[in-house]
Amino acid sequence: MDKIHILLAEDDENLGILLKEYLQAKGYETKLFTDGNHAFKGFITDHFDLCLLDIMMPVKDGFTLAREIRQLNSDIPIIFLTAKSMKEDVFEGFRIGADDYITKPFSMEELLFRIEAILRRTKSGQWSNQNQFKIGKYLFDANKQELIYGNQVQKMTTKESELLRLLCNNKNKILERNFALRTIWMDDNYFNARSMDVYITKLRKYLKDDPSVEIINIHGKGFKLIC
């Protein structure tokens, strides 16, 4: 199997070298660039499967770099590495099209977990444009935000619909908690996590009429829609 190629843009050279060596030891071919301009030139000339971008960089910041990368490739996964944790920066990152966001200091193991989780999702086609899903005896129309069971139509809120869509895209597989929180709530803090638990309870109630359908907790990881 071909190695995964990672573009790493990090202006702290010591951290950059440390990350590069760690990722290469884990089997990822990694190229390090210490400013956004060189990183973009590298992106044009080489093939990459994932980008790790520091936000605060000289010459060209990570947000600008991500926008330019997105113009050339709308699908490549992007993870922002940053010491900034203000909500506005998180929103800006996701508006540009980031797949994840990790705040320094972070553990190498956490970064590796996030990379592996994103690669699993993108390789398995999680980013589906499908709008209608069969869930046991239910029909879920994500565009209309409706869950249909026989003649009964359950109207859903936007967040309920977004969460159920993520579960459907990962049917019979684990939907990681942090990914769902960052995708729908833009932040995986404690209060949003509690809010998501409430929405999971609501979805279970909506799906209770078909005993073959179940949303189960996967301890320490997330949820799985079984049907």
Q: What do these coordinates show?
A:
This protein is of the alpha/beta class and 227 residues long. The protein folds into two domains: 5-123, Response regulator (Rossmann fold); 132-226, Winged helix-like DNA-binding domain superfamily/Winged helix DNA-binding domain (Arc Repressor Mutant, subunit A). It is built from eight helices and twelve strands. The strands form three sheets. It has a five-stranded parallel sheet, sandwiched between helices. It has a four-stranded antiparallel sheet with strand order 6-7-8-9, covered by helices on one side. A three-stranded antiparallel sheet has the order 10-12-11. α2 (36-45) packs parallel to α3 (62-72) and α6 packs across α8 (190-206). The longest helix is centred in the last third of the chain and has 17 residues, at 190-206. It is elongated. The chain starts with a strand and ends with a strand.
